[in-house]
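Hi! If you just cloned this repository, the fastest way to understand the data is to look at a raw example. We've pasted two of them here, unedited. The first protein comes first, obviously.
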Amino acid sequence: MKYAIETFDLTKTYDDFTAVDALNMKIDNKSIFGFLGPNGAGKTTTIKMLTCLVQATSGTANVAGYDIATNPNEVREKIGMVPQLVSLYSDLTVRENIDLCADFYGLPEDLKASRAEELMELVDIKYAQNKIVKQLSGGMKQKASVVASLIHQPEILFLDEPTIGLDPTTKRVLWDLVEELNSEGRTIILCSHDMYEVELLCDEIGIINGGILAAFDTPRGLKDTMINEQKNKKSSKNSEVIEIMDELRKEEGVEDSAAYDQLKEKIERKNRDLKELSVMISNLDESMLNHLNNVPGIHEIVEHDSGRLVMDIDSSDESVSQIISEIIGQGGNITSISTKDPSLEDVFMSVTTKYKKEGVDDG
């Protein structure tokens, strides 16, 4: 099975409101997929359709090889769900909740016991199996919820904001757990507003807005798309300004040609497509700094007391390697280097804002 989930014009309407509009996407089998969207974008409605909690108005989807419209029971057997709000019975123990879920799926007693033991060991919650759920911390409740959702060995696990409200240490434990579950062959569908979490874990990301799939790619692919869009936008804006200036020069006759050329150059320089390069050089000296200030492609250098240089450089594909060669050629010892790229949060804001400007309502 190539795709764990594949949707075909999946649509959900409520009276005259379209919550999800002809959604088409393919989620690779045994991958970790991040499903993002602002509040009211259609994300929850999509998940409810994929987990057979609500019926689609039109279109359909295959989940674990079964059609959600014609084979909902088979779909339910193949999926697990860890909701944002833990849905365990608070007055029962961890083990009693797990056994209850196993009974729901009709597991034999011997298999129920062995799986419960195995999963509690996996998520490190066995020590608390006899504790009442309402006595547990947030992280322990999430672990117990994961065990309950995995007791029937689902192929696909849906996680809705699994680490919200948890401390950093507990978050990392759950991140490790997600990666371990994926390494065992499960497909993970992660819904989260934590962009760091999504970028850390996910192979691919889909962003829904106004019921429409606004973006779909790898985290790196989404960032590269944004970089190219920014580059093209800046280049287009710069060309338009220069074109207007040239027309004004022809129409009105600019007497001070040198001043005009200087202004034109200043505008071009200001709108030049640059990127930020940060380099730590352990043996930085005045001679090396003077040399770098005269290297073509480096437009500004800010020196920090630590020996770190932050440079505005040309955004060409060769610029970084050329500057590294210049530093090494001067005998510089580079201890760290990085470029400033858009974050996943920048991408999310850009995509969702763009769709609002284009008239897509995310109600």
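Ok, and the second one:
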Amino acid sequence: MNIEELIHPLDAKALKALKNVPGLPKLMEKIFEYGYDELAWSDNVTTNLRLSETQMPEVYNRLPPICERLGIPVPELYLQMSPIPNAWTSGHKKVYIVLTLGLIRRAKGDELDAVLAHECGHILCQHVLYQTLANAIFTFGDTMADTFVGMIGNVAMKPVRQALMLWSRASELTADRVACIISPVSTLSKVLARLDLIPKNIVETMDFNAWAKQGEDFETLRDGTAWNKIVHWMADYDADHPYTPVRVYEAMKWEKTETCNWLRSNPIKFEFPEEIEAAKKAELAAKKAEEKSESSWSLPKIPKNVDVNSIIPKFKGFKK
């Protein structure tokens, strides 16, 4: 299956817009040239707890089966001792997932699987490069942003930031789709409610279909009047994640599709555009080489110093 069948349309559209931002290539080059990736990883490995088969195995051992199901390598998994429930994926060269203490206190069992599958979805869908870029800009605040302005200029920085924010929101919808391959949408909805700090007693009695309807109502602003579109844009403008009711609404729509049901019940093997293009080029090159070989074939020439009469007797066996 082509990976594009999994990608949410808003994700594909936002990524295309992001890649077309003029200052982006130079910014990415400078960020990785200045070692941001190594800096972020070293900060992570020195301040967080790396989980393994021997370090909190009750959490870590839930990760490898999900990675095997999705066909991706198992990334490093860390625990940050923050009371705020959260999870994220980062690392361009060395990919890793971070869970917070606040998250694992609220998300147990299947709900934790949904979170891990969502983060693995970012890896599967090749989001990590741009996520690392977004983390560099948004996580380190004004100081880092001012540095980037010095690299590419203030005029170029603004559209990069806006395009990254738009793509960051849209990419979460794709990762939620991957989570729904591993977990039912009811489980994903519950853990999203917990991440919104909704009290446990309310989460257990929530009507998630009604919650999703709130998300649907908000999304209808996209196709409404010009003013409604402005309201939608203003509400979303500075958010790096979609609003949770919108995520639940989109996940419920996805769960009803034939693609989602097929992925849940069949082995997963995705083809990526780069791989498909490379295979096409290789096939075309092989075909051209074959055509050239056929068109250039001819009988070998007999050297001038060879007596033709001496060769003829060798073929007498073919005569009757």
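That's it. A detail worth noticing about the second one: Confidence is low (pLDDT under 50) at residues 151-155, 314-320.
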